[in-house]
Every structure is written in structure tokens, then in C-alpha cells.
Amino acid sequence: MILEDLLPRYPRGGEPTLRVNFVASVDGAVTVDGRSGGLGGPGDKQIFDMLRMTCDALIAAAGTVRTEKYDALRLDEAGRAWRRAHGLPEFPLMVVVSGSLGLDPGQLIFSDAPVPPLVVTTARAVPPPGLADVAEILALGAEKVDLAAMVDELHRRGATQLLCEGGPRLFGSLIEADLVDEVCLTVSPLLAGGTAGRIAAGPDGPARRLALRSVLSEGDELFLRYARSA
Question: Would you tell me the crossing angle of helices 42-54 and 77-85 to the nearest 10 degrees?
């Protein structure tokens, strides 16, 4: 796939948009051997990188950051040049959602970050030593993170094109709060079986109808983009 062909399929919205990106097996598994990395192929990686390049802020839950061993949110020179050409900061803002602040300040996502990440947490959470030196910590909510307030705060800071990479509980909470505008889903040509969960986990609630905006394929991978239905 060519970047110039992908960009119109996954455009930056004219309105504030929260886009979620996931990969799942044909039978709905969100992980293989406990991680999502075993599901994606080259096409998924290309879309993954492009969505990071075009967003204002990248949101991930603390559990995903730990399990997937996130490193610093650094783009290559081509990605940074694209952002400069479109009037954007060279790097998106990294946002980590953590109710308990069970984070390691030495992990590369913090220690090697070109821009200090924003950690969104609760009023009751106690930061581990050193975290405040490598990240901005923002308490929104008493017992659990107020995700609507987080989105409002990011918009206030000028970050209107938001990309969430999960995990499933964060995605489920965003659905519960009716904050999801788009879903980008890669269907991996695998039957995973086992006990792996689905891409969203949370309380039951009303189903939200989405409209199919784009369908692409490369090899045996399928790439879908859905948006809120009018």
C-alpha cells in the first residue's frame, strides 16, 4: 500500500475525532500469546504507523503500555516532515490512562520520550518515585478516570484528532461514555482460539450503529474503517 493512497482513506477530521485502532483474528481474538503483536502483518503496521503520524495525541491504557512494552513515541524523519508540512508539532502527545499509576518511569515510553507524556489518573492515585520527572500527571476523577474530562482537556490543549490503541477495558470505557467516533480494525487471517478476549470489554449498554467508510485488503489481511452513523 502507498501512503498517498492511504491518507484519504484515514483522513484527519474537520471536527474533533476520537479514533480507535485495533487488530483482531478472524475468530475475534485480540491477542496471541498474550500480546497483539502476533496478529498484525506488514499492512497493519503501515496503517498503525500512519495513524500515529496523523494524530494529535495517542492514548493508551497503562496495562497496554506495560504488556506491549511501549517505547518512546518517536516518528521517523518522513513522518516528522509530513507533520511539519501540515503545520503540526513534530511529535504527537503520548497520553497514558492509569487509575493506579502502576507505571515504571524507566520504561522507554517515559525515559526516551521526545515530548513528556501526559499521564491521566485519579485523585486517589499516588505517583511512583520519579514519574513526575518524566511525565505530566493529571488527576481527573475521584475513583476512576473521567474519560470525558480527559477528552475535553485534550481538546482545550489543541489536540482534537485523538487516536486510542487500547486496551480492551479502555476501549469499553470509551464506548460506555459514548466518546468513540471511529473504529479502525484490521482482521488478521488467523484462527487463534484459546482464551484471548475481544477488542472491547466493559459493561453492557446500548449498541451504537456505525457506518462503513473504507475497506482495504493486502494479502490475506482486511482493513476496515467505521465511523459514527449519521
Answer: 40
